[in-house]
Specification:
The structure is a single chain. The protein is an alpha+beta fold and 188 residues long. It folds into two domains: 110 residues, Ubiquitin Conjugating Enzyme (Roll), CATH 3.10.110; 46 residues, no CATH class. The protein is 50% helix and 11% strand. It has a four-stranded antiparallel beta sheet, covered by helices on one side. The longest helix has 23 residues. The protein is elongated and about 85 Å long.
Length: 188
């Protein structure tokens, strides 16, 4: 019973502390998620913390299995989890969800120091390959467009939206017009 009271108090505290913080999500009454780092940050990661029945006397479950973390290597994830586990061991018996989230925020650079973002800035050879591939892809598209007549190109340009894409259903047959044309021919 005391564990549930502690959980209720911690839940209220978390809600008030993180009110309006987009990085914090309450996934359930005993399950929370926090994004460490900003959106678009290559070193950002998500931490999921779940409370078992015995929490805070028993350790919470900490996970980094969110899809958001797929760009992080298993070794870096394991390193982060082990450092968070050290904090759990030091704070066992007390409400520690806030402490764990803040530890991760304060130590983000250290926790992610071995993370290699999937960008091409670190490997100059990759830049060339990517650029070559994109040039090849665009030249193939241009080849297809060159086969169109001027009239076809004009019609196509009139249909393209601001993203350079054709609207959904642009080549669908208008069933009503089609049937009315077919029906009028049969009557004649």
């Amino acid at each position: 019973m005391a564990a549930n009271e502690d959980q209720e108090m911690e839940l209220e505290a978390l809600r008030s502390i993180y009110e309006g913080d987009d990085s914090f999500k309450e996934l359930g009454p005993t399950c929370f998620q926090y994004r460490v780092g900003d959106n678009g940050d290559s070193k950002a990661f998500l931490i999921d913390i779940s409370w078992p029945e015995t929490y805070p006397d028993g350790p919470p479950t900490i996970s980094m299995n969110a899809f958001f973390n797929n760009q992080i290597s298993p070794a870096v994830k394991q390193s982060i989890l082990s450092k968070l586990q050290e904090q759990v061991d030091a704070n066992l018996g007390t409400a520690m969800t806030y402490t764990l989230f803040e530890f991760a925020k304060d130590n983000k650079e250290d926790l992610m120091e071995n993370h290699q973002p999937h960008s091409n800035t670190n490997a100059p050879g990759n830049d060339i390959t990517v650029e070559t591939a994109s040039v090849t892809a665009t030249s193939k598209k241009k080849d297809k467009k060159e086969q169109l007549t001027k009239a076809q190109k004009r019609k196509l340009a009139d249909k393209i939206d601001h993203k350079g894409e054709l609207p959904r259903g642009w080549n669908w047959v208008d069933v009503i017009k089609h049937l009315s044309k077919t029906g009028s021919n049969e009557d004649d």
